[in-house]
Amino acid sequence: MPAPHSDAAANWALTRLALIAETPSSHVYRAHRDETPVVLKILKPYGMNELTGIAFLEWLGGDGAVRILDREDNAILMEWLDGPELSATVHAGDDAAATRFLGGVAKRLHTPRPNPPAGLASLADWCAPLSDTPLTRWPKPHRPDIEKAKALGASLLATSPTPVPLHGDLHHDNILRGPRGWCVIDAKGILGDPAYDLANAFQNPIGALDTARAPATIERRARTFAEILGYDRQRLLDWAAAHCALSMAWNLATARPIDANLAILPNLLAAAGRT
Q: In angstroms, rounded to a whole number, what is the distance separating the alpha carbons of residues 117 and 96?
């Protein structure tokens, strides 16, 4: 059987391919084209819904995002970003700087642009698992917090401003340093309230739960994002709490652990003034 990358490698004259990651949704290779390092991503059938995120990244044209060099069917060719990930700044002990960088990236992504990509999922559909997952699926001691988060999500969706294209998975591990500064990768591509795009940052990066759940961190992140982007601080905090519960709903559906979500949700709700 031909390797997943064989057709794309021939079509784009790629050399020195090396598999650097395999996920349920894709194979990811480092390769070279004309001696320039590139990334080749081959989507599996399960990952074809990532094409909306690729369309979002193409629309950005490299402004705060990885450049999409070419794509055909399930194969995407992207520029290589040397890194490091923004998460390294947090792990080095400077969450304040990482928060400023992340806010700056978000501001670039949310800059108005013409001709937004078609086919982006609505934020209401994206958040549906939060309302659709029965309360009985969550551990009983945490159900009061889940009910509060569900109510927050419903209220936020009911009062949503004019929707704009969003990354949908904006956090420290999806931002890498490149030749144009900090750039996002792995977009989902959704359409909704711009304040939602910062929500996932409040429970990241991976491996820094103690930092993320600290009340001082939550407050500083909300204040910094509000200052940089001009978004309402309360709405940022409300979305952070609602998204934490939404993440749990996704994890429950795929039998993944929810311990980290449960550890941070009470503090997010407290910061939002909902406990």
A: 33
